[in-house]
Specification:
By secondary structure, the protein is an alpha/beta fold. 63% of the residues lie in helices and 7% in strands. The strands form two sheets. A six-stranded mixed sheet has the order 4-3-5-6-7-8, with helices on both faces. The protein has a two-stranded antiparallel ribbon with strand order 1-2. The C terminus is likely disordered.
Length: 589
């Protein structure tokens, strides 16, 4: 494959690029850029960083992410969930180490980017499937509540606190005697304006419109002179290009746990956005390439004055809904943000902080998905527990630990489900066919062959299911009437040393009691594992039957072997062999 062919394979959306695609990309890029300005400023506030850092994070990272990931619509940039995670921890670490929050944020972005690129290079894309949706939902819900609570001081013009949810509410409540009525009116007015405009037409860019209106009103009425904070009071927005910055390498060990949690959250969020849009567009999303693209976007953020970025749900959705045709829509959006900040940076300094607070309260409300929460709570107990534990962790623990807690709970329930080994007994009905009955069911409406038990297994054969496999086999050993046990493993997956040892131990125990274990439906890979685990000799090669090209071919051979061992052919066996001989063996598809 030539370099040109390889490039076409990586960017199929750019093949046959024409005027129609260009028009769609320019319009979509402009819509994304207009949405990126208020979100970049607002999310930087959530992260406890100067507004310029949020704007820088929406520039170069958006361009790099669009060019390198597989999805043509996912837009990289700051997001509320990641910003909240970064904010709490960066503030704490900056206070402990005496470092500048901006430097800490850039270093964190570099670490996250390197981890994400490494995950993609190692093809760990499937790892996201093991992070349960209830965990992500619990974190997003908790983040929404914390974002709203964090904006209460901005809405009332009073002091805000730090710490967990109750500590923040306590500090805010103590300052309510000094509420700035004008700030409260501006904040509530901004939130109400968003709700009203959405009812008129949800396609209107409400955040841009409300933020612009706030700036205009500030110029007219000079709210700042009346005690209302503006962005310039926090940090000025420079009218300049993104700077080239070098992240610090100091304190990497301190940042490592936070970087790992942020890596997971960013990848989960980005992958969810990519898959959601792909389901609507029919595109194919390569999880490993998404990891690499997201990682490169974070590396770019680290060296261009930004902080950790993720796949933005709102801007990515806007990119698609506004008619974006190719990945150049994200590139154009990033370039437009650069131009808009370069030209109008000082104007953003006059944005009233209560207006941004009102916008963020709406953002917090939007991320709390009540219907999904109801479904999660009533689907399974495991899903409900994972959601509730993660949510409580968000309110009482540092957010990176809350994510670890939720992931831990999710993995516990996953291992529990994965370790479930389902067994059933196969017996012969009056026609001679094998039928499934519950193990130990003495009232089964089918005929059991004396001295023979046929056990069918389904599930994963690994260390987590070894105990259940042992219990299933022990139940057969305890039956004094049984001489031969046929264990059908056609629908099992995997085989590790733990389960191979259980099979070998059971075979030897049965042999010592005059019984025989026959293992049926062994796949070639499992056969090789039994050999490597020295279980083959202990069970007996003559007692192991590999899968065959015909249906029940291995079972036929095993039943004939059972007849040789028991020395007689009972009615059930006769019926089975008669039925099998009257039907032509069918090859497996």
């Amino acid at each position: 494959m030539t370099p040109i062919d390889r490039l076409k394979a990586l960017t199929p959306d750019l093949v046959d690029y024409d005027k129609t695609k260009l028009i769609g990309d320019v319009g979509s890029g402009a819509a994304v850029a207009f949405l990126s300005i208020p979100q970049g400023v607002a999310y930087a506030m959530i992260a406890g960083l100067p507004p310029k850092v949020g704007l820088y994070a929406a520039m170069i990272p958006s361009i790099i992410g669009a060019l390198t990931r597989s999805s043509r619509h996912v837009v990289a940039g700051p997001t509320n969930a990641v910003s909240l995670l970064v904010g709490g921890a960066v503030a704490t670490l900056a206070a402990q180490n005496g470092a500048e929050p901006v430097v800490v944020a850039a270093t964190l972005a570099l670490m996250v980017g390197v981890m994400q690129v490494a995950a993609g290079a190692l093809r760990l894309g499937a790892i996201i499937d093991y992070i349960g949706a209830p965990v992500v939902l619990g974190y997003i819900t908790g983040a929404g509540v914390l974002i709203a609570v964090g904006q209460l001081p901005n809405l009332t013009g009073t002091a805000g606190g730090s710490g967990n949810l109750l500590e923040k509410l306590s500090v805010w409540g103590q300052g309510l005697t000094q509420v700035n009525p004008l700030a409260l009116v501006l904040g509530i007015g901004a939130a109400a304006a968003v709700v009203l405009i959405r009812k008129i037409d949800r396609r209107i860019p409400t955040a841009v419109l409300v933020m612009t209106l706030g700036i205009v009103l500030e110029f007219i009425f000079d709210f700042h002179s009346r005690g209302v904070q503006v962005l310039a009071d926090i940090a000025r927005v420079p009218s300049s290009l993104p700077p080239f910055s070098i992240p610090s390498v100091a304190g990497l060990d301190t940042l490592l746990p936070l970087a790992a949690a942020t890596t997971v959250l960013s990848l989960v969020e980005s992958s969810a956005v990519g898959r959601s849009l792909a389901a609507r567009t029919g595109d194919r999303v390569d999880a490993n390439r998404e990891f690499i693209g997201q990682g490169l976007a974070n590396v770019a953020a680290a060296f261009s004055g930004g902080y950790v970025v993720s796949g933005s749900p709102s801007r990515s959705s806007m990119c698609w809904r506004a008619g974006g045709k190719t990945r150049l829509a994200g590139v154009i959006g990033g370039l437009m943000v650069i131009v808009m900040v370069w030209v109008g940076g000082p104007i953003l300094d006059h944005t009233p902080v209560p207006v941004l607070g009102g916008l963020l309260v709406i953002v917090a409300y939007d991320v709390i998905d009540i219907p999904r929460i109801k479904v999660t709570l009533k689907t399974t107990p495991g899903d409900a527990v994972a959601y509730i534990v993660t949510l409580i962790g968000c309110f009482s623990l540092p957010l990176d630990r809350a994510i670890y807690l939720g992931v831990g709970v999710s993995l516990v329930f996953f291992l529990r489900r994965a370790s479930i080994l389902v067994s059933s007994e196969l017996a012969i009905d009056e026609t001679g066919r094998l039928r499934e009955v519950e193990v130990g069911d003495d009232e089964a409406p089918v005929e059991r062959a004396p001295k023979l038990r046929i056990i069918h297994l389904e599930g994963a054969l690994f260390f987590g299911s070894a105990g259940e496999l042992r219990r299933i086999l022990d139940a057969q050993v305890a039956d004094p009437e049984v001489e031969v046990v046929i264990l059908r493993m056609k629908r099992t997956g995997g085989m590790d040393i733990s389960c191979a040892t259980v099979l070998a131990d059971a075979a030897e125990l049965m042999r010592s009691r005059g019984m025989t274990l026959l293992v049926v439906g062994v796949k070639p890979t499992v056969y090789a594992k039994l050999e490597r685990a020295n279980a083959m000799e202990r069970i007996g090669p003559e007692n192991i039957f590999e899968t065959q090209v015909t249906w029940f071919g291995a079972m036929d051979a095993a039943i004939e072997r059972a007849m040789e061992i028991t020395g007689f052919q009972c009615k059930a066996m006769h019926n089975y062999l008669a039925w099998r001989s009257s039907h032509q063996p069918l090859e497996r598809p």
